[in-house]
Every structure is written in C-alpha cells, then in structure tokens.
Amino acid sequence: MQPQEQLSYPGNGFSEVSSSCKNLERNEQLSQWVENVTKQLMTEDLPESNENDFPGNFQGVMPPVYEEVGTVAALLGELRPRKVARKSSNESPGSVFLQHNHHQYYSDDQDDQTCNLSVESSKRIISSSAKSPGADEPGLNLLTLLLECAVAISQDNLGEAHRMLLELSQMASPYGASCAERVVAYFAKAMLSRVINSWIGVCSPLIDIKAVHAAFQVYNNVSPFIKFAHFTSNQAILEAFHRHDHRIHIIDLDIMQGLQWPALFHILATRAEGPPHVRMTGLGSSMELLAETGKQLSNFARRLGLCFEFHPVDKKCGDIVDISLLHVRTGETLAVHWMQHSLYDATGPDWKTMRLLQGLSPRVITLVEQEIAHGGSFLDRFVSSLHYYSTLFDSVGAFLPGDDPGRHRVEHCLLQREITNVLAIGGPARSGEDKLRHWRSQLSRNGFVQLPMSTNSMAQAQLILNMFPPANGYSLVQGDGTLRLGWKDTSLYTASAWTSLQTSFR
C-alpha cells in the first residue's frame, strides 16, 4: 500500500535531521514541565483518598496513554469544581470527570464547594517545579510569570495582568532560541488581546486568509499532522462508499485549498467498477478563494477523466438555514468532512452545526479533532492550550532550527493565530454559545453511530509517519474506534468516522 499523495520536503530542513534531533532533549523540557505543573495543580489540596479512586491514577509514574487536560476549572483558585483526570484506556470518548468517593464533578455549573485551589498554593507549585534539577531556569521563570498572569486575568485583575504582560513582552521574543520563550511570547500576545478585549468588550482582528493558507502548506510539508487528517479521512470515505455508488457528493465544511481531495479523486478514477460522478460542495469565508480551489480541483479531475462538479458556499455551516444551499440531490451518496482547527470560527454555533448534520443524514462523517478545550472558563482554555501548544512547539522545534523561515511562518501565521483565537477572540463578549468540548461524544448522543477506523486507515497513517524520522517522537495509537496522532505520548489530533442512524440512500 502506498500513501495517497506525494510527500515532498523542499527546503524544509530534513537534511538537518541529525543535528535537529540533538536539540530534542532540551526542547521536550517545555511540554514535560507544563504537564508536570498541570498534574500538580489538578491534584493539589484535594482530600486524601485511595489512589484507586482516580480513573487515571495520579500517583507515581503516569502510564504512556493519551490524556485530555480539558476542564480544569478548579485550577488556580477558580471557584467551580470542574476538573478532569487523565483518561484511562477503558474510558469512553468525551468523558470528562474526576471521580472521588463515588461523586462525579461534571463540567456543568455546580455550587461552589470543595476542590478549590488557592492562588498561593498554585504559585507554590509553580515555583517548586521551576526549581527542579536540570530545568531551563530562564524559560521556566517566564512560564511561571505567564501562569501568574493567567491567574490575574481569571480574577479580573486586569491592571496587574497588564503590568505582567508588559514585563513579559520585554523578556520573551517569538524569535527566541528556546521553545519556552517563543511559547511565552505568543501566549503573552494573545493574553494582551484578551485584556484589551475585556476593557473594550470586543476583539475581532482581520484574518489574512491567503497568509494562513500559505502557512498551512508549509506546515503540511514539515509535519505529519495535516497528512494524517487527509489520509485517514480519505480512507474512511472510500470504505463508506459502496461499489454500486455511482453518484457521490462530498461536503467539506472548511475546504481551504482542498489539498486532500486530489488523492481521493485518483483512487475513485481508477475504481474497478468505473469512476463515479463526483460533486463537491466546499464551504469557506472567501468566494474568491473558493472559486480558485474549485478551479484547481476541476482541472485535476478533468485530467483524470472524472466527472466532477464543484459548488462554492461562502457561509459557515452553522449559519445555513436553507439546506438547499448545499445542493444535496436525491440518488447521491453523501459524505461530510470536517477537519477542525482553531485558526478562526469556521462553522459558527456548534448546536446549529449539529442540527445541520442531523438534517443531512450523511452516509459518513469524517471528523478530525484537536485535543484541546475550546469551551469553558478562561483558565480551562489557558491550561489546555498551554499544554497543547507547548507540545506542538516542541515538535516543530525538534525538526526545524530556530532561524528557519518556514518554522517562523508556521508559528506566527498558524500556531499564534490559534492561541489567540482560543484565549482572546470573543472573550467576555462571546455570543454565549457553548462550545462542545468533544464532538465525538456529542455525535453519539445525537443520532450518529461510530464507524471504527480500519486497519487500512492505520496503515495509511503509519506510512506517513515512516516518512518522518522516528527519533522525532511522533506516536500513533488505534483505540476506541479512533486513530490518535501525538507527540511524546500527548494526543494532538484524533480522527474518527460516523454514520447517521437515519441515513437514506439517495
């Protein structure tokens, strides 16, 4: 079996893998320290109990399984006991709770009670962790100040937060030599936007979609994460289509440049039963860019001899009231693809997106989720995103040198924009719409059934990872019907497939 698209690495630093790997031990200190502090903050001041009461077992060495830092609303003095433990291997997807003495603290609103952490206690944990042997003292000091700033913001102490952010802006640079300094610089910028947002009540920065797409292509060349999403989704779609499906309709909820679809077109065009008629509806924010994407895909399909139609829709799927805008026709087999990201709000209100998916009743939904908390309090999002993005920065830093222009483009145009979107955009002026923490669990509650990711999907993903040096630490796990790709045993992206209970074969 061969990967479905050509992997090329022009000018991206692959020739320097051996020298880049020498920095791996230093770079991974960042994510390991953040994880260590987070675990301590999640368990500090909890009532003593038997270690078996905790599903993830916080005691001793943590097992090498994927975790979801998730809802940590009790963190650093937050008043609601909304916490999660590391998930055990037999825990259902999307389950977010900490079980103690047979009581479950869910992420819903509850009365203020125990499990609260004092700010003083939190600072003590941070300080002790920063002084651990072998720690990168300057970087850890920066992270300590950043965490203290997050505490101030969560308590609406905006003046003190602004003072600390000004200090951080003088201490940390996005061009710094260490991953820690870069992470702090970008988080400080996002948190400054949050503070300003709190003062003026709105934060709606302009988005340079073309710059985002250009950086997205660079990221696709230097990291396996995007290709992982493309290949696993394409495989799931192929397996959902039957040999007698002669009319296929694919709806991409955020098509961007449509990088993944030429590989799928090639497989469909060489199908033994003959190529099907393919229609694609691509959603996006710019009709100009959608038209360009449609033109490129149409040209590629024509060279393959594939009958193809493209329909651009410059709307968010959550804003679509009339389903006829998606051009769904009787007699077609429908697939919906959604690769989630935090670059911008691509879909609108989650509950409206769910309602649309229910109305479409597709044969298959391919979903690729980031393992990060988009909802909840500011501290929920801060802790989850700090761990998530410090891990991503580590993975990029282990691969590309600090002065690589491609690395800066990825960090500045993609990762920094996602950090800002998670922490700052909307802020206190958010629309009030609750963001779903885990779409997998919500789909299972709203009329959809999971389709387990197959061994072929696993093989596709493994072939991609084989193109990257194994020493770089990417990890792939198949379980609970999903495929999870991570770095150093931290899950970053999870791919899954679903079908509607009400699917009608159009």
Automatic annotation (TrEMBL):
Belongs to the GRAS family. Residues 292-324 are annotated as: Leucine repeat II (LRII). The lineage of its organism: Eukaryota, Viridiplantae, Streptophyta, Embryophyta, Tracheophyta. Residues 424-499 are annotated as: SAW. The keyword Transcription regulation applies. It comes from Sesamum indicum. A motif (VHIID) lies at residues 248-252. This is Protein SCARECROW-like. The keyword Transcription regulation applies. InterPro entries: TF_GRAS. Keywords: Transcription, Transcription regulation.
